[in-house]
Amino acid sequence: MTRLARWTALAAASALLAAGCGGGSSGDDKSGLSWGRCKATADGPAPSSEWQCATLKVPLDWSKPDGETIGLGLIRAKARGDDRLGSLLFNFGGPGASGVSMMPSYAPTVSSLRERYDLVSWDPRGVGASEGVRCRDDKRIQAAESVDVTPDTPAEEQAYLEDASDFGKGCQKDAGKLLAHVSTADSARDMDRIRQVLGDDRMNYFGISYGTELGGTYAHLFPKKVGRMTLDAVVDPAADTVGHALNQATGFQRALNGYLRSTGQDPQAGTRKIAELLRRIDARPLETGAPGRKLTQTLAVTGIILPLYSKDSWPTLTSALDAAERGDGSELLVLADGYNERDPSGRYGTTTHSQRVISCLDDRQRPTVAETKKLLPRFEKVSPVFGTFLGWDTAGWCHDWPVPGQHDTPEVSAPGAAPVLVVGNTGDPATPYEGARRMAGELGKGVGVLLTWRGEGHGAYGSGSDCVDSAVNAYLLDDSVPKDGKVCS
Known about the structure:
Layout: E1 8-9, E2 25-28, E3 34-37, E4 52-59, E5 69-77, E6 86-91, E7 93-94, H1 99-106, E8 117-122, H2 138-144, H3 154-175, H4 184-198, E9 203-208, H5 210-221, E10 226-232, H6 241-262, H7 267-283, E11 286-287, E12 294-295, H8 297-305, H9 314-325, H10 330-339, H11 351-362, H12 369-382, H13 387-396, E13 420-425, H14 434-443, E14 448-453, H15 466-478, E15 486-488
Parallel strand pairs: 6-8, 6-9, 9-10, 10-13, 13-14, 14-15
Antiparallel strand pairs: 1-7, 2-3, 3-4, 4-5, 5-8, 11-12
Helix pairs in contact: 4-5, 6-7, 6-13, 7-8, 8-10, 12-13
């Protein structure tokens, strides 16, 4: 079963430049890590020689700091200028996004920051080069695409729940004891170890999407170690499992409305037309031209979601929807494959595997099918296109999960921390703007500083607003904190 949208990574619509850790060593430095040339991976070539990779050992269980360890894959590029401020650690979201893969491709967006910071990222535990989890092989992932994630009959409900249970068992078999130690709090403690070995007195951090929840958790656990921290595309810290799903139904419907207006359509009429298309696809999946693959309703919704992450991709959505109306599902399938990290050879990425093991350890709530069915009318009212999918997702995502969740909502209060810049985009589809306001409030008075962009797409920094970019750069480079409530239009 594919998660249609959790918090997701900033790069949901991008092809990631993949890079591995290891290779020829350049020797130890004052960090105590052995930094060396990054290796190529099956996903892509190695980055240029300016990038270095290393492996950091951390406790598997932070309650037993002298016990068994795991390795975390790190990547960095050193500051170009002489007036170095230290390291700037990045997390790109998910949960489950590989910082080792994403950092080199994101570096041009933050080139001005590299003048004074070493750009650093890592694969959080359970991700990629850091004991990455794979819960299914490619053949079984593709087979699961036929599972109806909005079941209409008892047989479909049973298949849906059996698939969820089977996925969890696969994760447990692959991850073993790691499955109980991949929480956001575990990764926040890993971050502080990274800060220490990099030689930074305080944590300078740039968190995007789920990376904002991770940053807020770090600020709560280590308020006196917070340096210059920016949180962009903010996950609502006050929302529980059902609340997050409703937030995303709201956010994606807003983005769809914006897209429909841009094409001259009435949002209500356009939404009804797409919902009807999805109902027809549910009854009879579309041909795609791909051997053995048809466009199911689930794949169609996934394909619609992907281009909503960026306004630049809206014309692609128009073409794909037009083709689907003609009975050709090939374009929406390509978009769905992009979201699901499926390459032309049939290989799938594992971001959603890592995403699930992390989020199901974090989230304590396990809504039942009966509870979900009661909620479905509310979801469908919020979004006739996305509501049903995100509603059912609350029942299936962590169904029969092998380990219990830890909390209903994360704790992010950080009394005594330095100001944290919280950036919200009013048109964000995956992390609706309300989450930024709540994060700024929950961090605490004098800590959370809200910067608003009236824009479109997932995230604000580097998305075309000179106002946003200038404010963030001034904060990170000059410690110039903008006025709380500043709005960029």
